[in-house]
Amino acid sequence: MSTLATSFGDSAVMLRRNAKHTLRNPVALFNAVLFPLVMMLMFVYVFGGAFKVQGKYVDYAVPGLLVMAIGYGLGPTAAAVNGDMTKGIINRFKAMDVSHGAVLAGHVVSTTVRALIADAAIIGLGFAMGFRPHASALDWFGAIGLMLLLSFALSWLTVAMGLAARTVESAGMATVPLIMLPFLSSAFVPADTMGAGVRQFAEYQPFTPVIETLRGLLTGHPDTGHLVVALAWCVGFAVVGYLWAVSTFRKRA
Amino acid sequence: MRNSAIAVQGLRKAYGDKVVLDGIDFEVASGSVFSLLGPNGAGKTTTVNIATTLMRADAGTVHVAGHDVATATRQVRRLIGVTGQFAAVDELLSGRENLQLMADLKRIRPAGRVVSGLLERFDLVESADKLASTYSGGMRRKLDLAMTLVGGPQVIFLDEPTTGLDPRSRRAMWDIVRELVADGTTIFLTTQYLEEADQLAEQVAVLDHGRIVAQGTPAELKRQVPGTHVRLRFTAAHELDAAAAILAGATRDDQELTLRVPSDGGSRSLRAVLDRLDEHGVNAEEFSVHTPDLDDVFLALTGRTDTTHTNALEANAR
Q1: Quick one: which of A22, A124, B9, B11 is 20 to 30 A from B117 by CA?
Q2: Torsion angle in degrees (nearest 10) through CA of B25, B29, B30, B34
Q3: A contact test, residue of B52, B90, B106 with most A CBs within 10 A
Q4: Which candidate from B80, B88, B92 shows the least CB-CB separation from A20?
Q5: CB contact, 8 Å: B53 with chain A?
Q6: Domains of chain B in sequence order
Q7: Would you say B60 and B222 are in contact if contact means Cβ atoms under 8 Å apart?
Q8: Is A184 exposed, middle or buried (0-12, 13-18, 19+ CB in 10 A)?
Q9: What percentage of chain A has pLDDT greater than the value 70?
Q10: From B54, which residue of chain A is nearest by alpha-carbon distance?
Q11: Please, where are the H alpha helices in chain B?
């Protein structure tokens, strides 16, 4: 069997394993989907009225919630990867003739799929709450592509953090910044309403261009400037995450 | 080296300043059980990690079934099975699914017979479809070993396979090891338990602070330690006095009324002692031969007895 066919075969086996884990642990999946939905209800119905944004608040908030939902689903992945590492399961795979990338790819793909499920739920509830995007088919395609890319990139970063962490608890904690960053972005209020310092941070942090790009695509006014920065951040996260994950995987035994 | 399942030469490994393996050499014959015996931190797991391709050595070579672990990594991985120090089972999968996972990764199709065969052999049929998270420690260990056996590896590495097991599970594990060797598998086993090495291994190497301090069969190791002696107990002090006078090199314990006579434990030297007592008409109430067990060997070789000795002296001084 060629190396490529072997690693695809191994990845399929690993993905099946991760899929079983997700289905066996419905509470985690439910939690990953439910929390962003609760945040959505809170922001739109509780705080949203106080925020001054152009147009309806739900239209403003959906892109931010999509990104936040992706970040929120990362905690369980970091914990699961760390569990595999500390419980010796990864060593078992490493001592077998199994493609090393496959072990990690299983986690990355299942995390990405989970994130997309959470995003589908956000969009679904959004529609029920009056979210009315003005996106063309192409814009939708672009928005879904960006969500996919962001989930994929953050998943690699999360897998790397899970591998590098000493304990399951610290692995979970490592993803907290990825959950918190959307709050310090233009996700829920425009950055120019924030105080000095925070505003600059919000403008230059990675999630703002991603959210602005999604917002542009969903309102039918895509912004190329934001898109380029967003893509650069995503590719950067993916490359750093991938390299970090692979080198940690090789080193730690 | 043809007949060696594992050949280790000049193996060294350090983490920063801390030397974990300080040049160790040993060979394991095909189809035998070899035990690496040592206390915590001696370097046992590091040795296993290097031999199973999980870690690279700083210097030295390890060949498994003739393949260099550093260069022919894939070939080695196809031939070996590894059971680490902690049961590496997937807790969110059932016992059957764990075995199926191994079979899938080794491309064994269809795997049904292999999986159900292992479940039966390890007495896991009843819990086969329960999640491994519900298993007891002994069951997890068994499942772990069963997973290692999927695909019939030639060389099996067991890193402290019975640590934390109750005596019954430990004995069950020993039986499994014996069966595997009977089938021609080579087993490399690390342990902290001297009894375990004594029970299972044909060859034992004692590892301490990254060096092999002794190597041989369990019997050979026991012989390396002076201390086999005959113990005689008497009923009266005058008999002890008489015996002490006629037996050279004996140490007496006046309180216990016993005499320790150095001896190699062989029948000739025993008869000599008895004849000597007989000639002088001295009668010992009790007669016993004390052979050091692996524990004594271990303590003597690693110098741990010295520590105990020093502590005892300090305690006396106080």
Answers
A1: A22
A2: -80
A3: B90
A4: B92
A5: yes
A6: 4-89+135-222 (3.40.50.300), 226-290 (3.30.70.100)
A7: no
A8: middle
A9: 99
A10: A253
A11: 44-51, 73-79, 95-105, 112-121, 137-149, 167-182, 194-200, 218-224, 237-246, 267-279, 294-302, 304-317
Burial class, B278, CB count within 10 angstroms (exposed 0-12 / middle 13-18 / buried 19+): exposed
Decide if A88 and B88 are in contact by the 8 Å CB cutoff.
Answer: yes
Q: CB–CB of A114/A34 below 8 Å? A: no
Q: Name chain A contacts of B55, Cβ cutoff 8 Å.
A: 253
State the best of B47, B86, B101, B106 to mutate against chain A, taking most chain A CBs within 10 Å.
B101
User: To the nearest 5 percent, what fractions of chain B are helix, strand and coil?
Assistant: 40, 25, 35
A25 CB within 8 Å of a chain B CB: yes
Contact (CB<8Å) B82/A24: no
pLDDT one-digit tens code per residue, B44-68: 999 999 999 999 999 999 999 999 9
A24 chain-B contacts, CB cut-off 8 A: 92, 131
Cβ contact, residue pair A91, B84, below 8 Å: yes
Give A89's Cβ-side CA count (13 Å radius).
22
Answer yes or no: are the C-beta atoms of A14 and A105 closer than 8 Å: yes
pLDDT of res. B118: 94
For CA atoms A116, A122, A126, A129, give the dihedral sign.
Answer: positive
Any idea what DSSP says for residue A49?
G
Q: Which two tokens stand for residue B58?
A: 């700083």
pLDDT at B305 over 60: no
